[in-house]
Amino acid sequence: MSKAKRLNEMIMMVNRMKRFTVRELADEFGVSKRTILRDLQELSEMGVPLYSEVGPHGGFKVLNERTLPPIAFSEDEAVSIFFALHALRHYISIPFDIEYGSIKKKFYLNLSGEIRDTIDNMEDRIDFLAVHQHEEIPFLRQLLEAAIHQDVILITYEAKGKNSCRSIQPIGIYANEGKWYCPAYCFTRKDYRVFRCDRIKTVELDENIIPIDLSQITLKNRFSILEDKKEAFELNVELTNSGVEKYQSVKWPITELHKRNDGTGFVVGRISKQDIDFFSDYFIAYGENAVIRKPFELIEAVKEKVNKILNQYD
User: What is the rounded distance in angstroms from the CA atom of residue 281 to the CA atom of residue 263?
Assistant: First the structure.
């Protein structure tokens, strides 16, 4: 049996056994204990989470993490995965207990020399630009786990310069333009809210509140489900050619763009009362490339904010 095949089978075997001795592996593969020890060292360097135990009943065991067996990738697939990991560098916080840099390094070092050369030649000639995340967010993992297990958590939330305690049940978390967000049901406000994760200062399990059933609400369908439960306004915004291009770069699942043959277009959809403040800021950034037709409440909110800006220069 070749060394590569032996290592491949050994990964699958140790994952299955969880606890084993060098003698057991040596007998299984018909090699010396010294060879097995060298193989285990290589597996450890490849990322297999092994832990050695001393004593008469000692041996090796695999830590709780499961290690996937090797997967064969084509050159194009390997390069695509590398650059997908490379794009994560814009986020200094992710909801996993490992830095993307170590994943990227481990993946890179296990590629063939030829594919590494291809990546080296491409690294300074292709990039995925995104807004950099500047704040470290320590609670992403807890927010994600609360969403998965439908737990209610008590958070300290900073808004308008003040901290307040909120009991929330997260739906999930998502990243957008360098920021992490957590849509959740807020028991304090008795309504659904979207929380900026960088403004969450503390997180702990709230055992005093019974969770509600959010099992059917996900990040993908939350708008269509939640908008049916609250007062909503019909949205209609006229866009110039430049406005259409800007909208296409960051569009929202509760709105829909209709593009004309001349490049102009219009956005329609339904937005809740709580969305008025957000969309007034959003469409102000379009300047003369967006004209809001309705709702009236959004038009008034934009006028009020524009007047405040003008008064700063009065």
Answer: 24
The answer to whether position 220 is within a domain reads: yes
CATH code where residue 176 lies: 2.30.30
Q: 182-199: per-residue pLDDT in tens? A: 999 999 988 888 899 999
Q: What are phi and psi of 261, to 5 degrees?
A: -65, -30
8 Å CB contact between 247 and 239: yes
Alpha helices per DSSP H over 134-285: 140-149, 222-227, 241-249, 276-284
Measure the CA–CA gap between 100 and 83, rounded to whole angstroms.
Answer: 12
Highest-scoring range by mean pLDDT, 62-76, 182-196, 212-226, 245-259: 182-196
Query: What pLDDT shows up at residue 287?
Result: 93
Q: Are 50 and 57 in contact (CB under 8 A)?
A: no
Look at strands 19-20 and 59-62 and give their pairing: antiparallel
Structure tokens at 279: 């969309």
Alpha helices in the chain (DSSP H): 3-17, 22-29, 33-45, 75-87, 100-109, 113-122, 140-149, 222-227, 241-249, 276-284, 296-311
Over 90: is that where the pLDDT of 291 sits? Answer: yes
Domain co-membership, 109 together with 183:
no
Q: Summarize pLDDT for 161-174 with one digit per residue, the tens.
A: 899 999 999 999 98
Q: Which domain holds residue 265?
A: 230-311
How many residues does the structure list for the chain? 314
Lookup: tokens for 149: 């297990």
Q: Tokens 């969450």 correspond to what residue?
A: 200
Phi and psi angles of residue 257, each rounded to the nearest 5 degrees, phi first: -95, 130
CA 265 to each of CA 184, 217, 262, 276: distance values in angstroms, whole numbers, following the listed order = 33, 31, 8, 21
Residue that wins the pLDDT comparison between 179 and 169: 169
Q: Are residues 307 and 242 in the same domain?
A: yes
Confidence of residue 253 (pLDDT cuts 50, 70, 90): low
